[in-house]
């Protein structure tokens, strides 16, 4: 239904946004990507995203919003805060960047506004997430309504991973033919280590657990043939 339309993918070069990018390439006639330099602890992230966009043969635009890192201390924008810290009970993880996804979606919509792009794609998921409130479906629906009211447009925000856990996201990547690309060329690790990452931070633990479950499932399926 979207084969004749264009989409803008919010792109960081991690597992989820890369899988979402290739999902979009399968769904839309034309796809381009937008990334953000928001003062994240690893500037290397934007280089990874740029390289992956080149591999996918899509245009990549990088937007500078580093002032976001000055608003609230968190582990993703402050190297003095450990990303491996245990999350205190009944509180958000220290890797939560307040307002990040709302700001990203607003900037992406503003970028899409003058380019005639109606569809925005983001790789957020409320199934396997780190407790971030701005990864939930309710937030996306609310943000869509607010952005459309603010810009008098009818943007559609697609969340292809919303109800998929990491195991299912690996499976989708395999179905899209990008399993190895996602496994070896993306940057998901909070400590800035490519591919399988540091193996210690919350992002790596979640990614690795899903990978092991999917590989086990795939092996079982192959043996049953």
Write up what this structure looks like.
By secondary structure, the protein is an alpha/beta fold. Helix content is 42%, strand content 11%. The chain contains 7 helices and 5 strands; from the N terminus they run βαβαβαβαβααα. A 5-stranded parallel β-sheet has the order 3-2-1-4-5, sandwiched between helices. α1 (15-27) packs across α5 and α5 (166-175) crosses α7 (202-223). The protein is globular and about 55 Å long. The two termini are 34 Å apart. The model has no long low-confidence stretch (mean pLDDT 93).
Keywords:
Rossmann fold, 7 helices, alpha/beta, 5-stranded parallel beta sheet, 11% strand, 225 residues
Brief rundown of the structure:
The chain has seven helices and five strands. It has helices spanning 15-27, 44-56, 100-113, 137-151, 166-175, 179-185, 202-223, and strands at residues 6-10, 30-37, 59-64, 119-121, 156-158.
Strand order of the largest sheet: 3-2-1-4-5
Radius of gyration: 17 Å
Q: Which CATH C-level class is it?
A: Alpha Beta
Overall shape: it is globular
* Residues in β-strands, percent: 5-15%
- Specify the number of helices: 7
Instruction: Report helical residue fraction.
Output: 40-55%
Mean pLDDT: 93
End-to-end separation in angstroms reads 34 Å
- CATH topology value: Rossmann fold
CATH second-level architecture: 3-Layer(aba) Sandwich
């Amino acid at each position: 239904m979207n084969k004749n339309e264009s989409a803008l993918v919010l792109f960081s070069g991690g597992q989820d946004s890369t899988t979402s990018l290739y999902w979009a390439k399968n769904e839309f006639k034309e796809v381009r990507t937008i990334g953000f330099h928001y003062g994240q602890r690893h500037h290397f992230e934007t280089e990874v995203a740029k390289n992956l966009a080149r591999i996918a043969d899509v245009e990549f635009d990088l937007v500078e919003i580093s002032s976001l890192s000055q608003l609230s201390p968190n582990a993703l924008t402050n190297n003095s805060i450990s990303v491996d810290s245990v999350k205190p009970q009944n509180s958000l993880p220290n890797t939560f960047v307040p307002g990040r996804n709302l700001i990203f979606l607003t900037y992406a919509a503003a970028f899409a506004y003058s380019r005639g792009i109606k569809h925005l794609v983001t790789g957020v998921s409320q199934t396997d997430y780190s407790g971030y409130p701005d990864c939930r479906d309710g937030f996306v629906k609310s943000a869509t309504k607010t952005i459309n009211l603010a810009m008098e447009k009818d943007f559609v925000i697609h969340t292809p991973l919303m109800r998929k856990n990491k195991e299912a996201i690996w499976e989708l990547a395999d179905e899209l033919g990008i399993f190895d690309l996602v496994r070896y060329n993306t940057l998901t690790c909070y400590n800035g280590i490519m591919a399988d990452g540091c193996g210690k931070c919350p992002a790596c633990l979640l990614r690795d657990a899903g990978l092991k479950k999917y590989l086990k499932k795939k092996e079982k399926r192959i043996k049953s043939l």
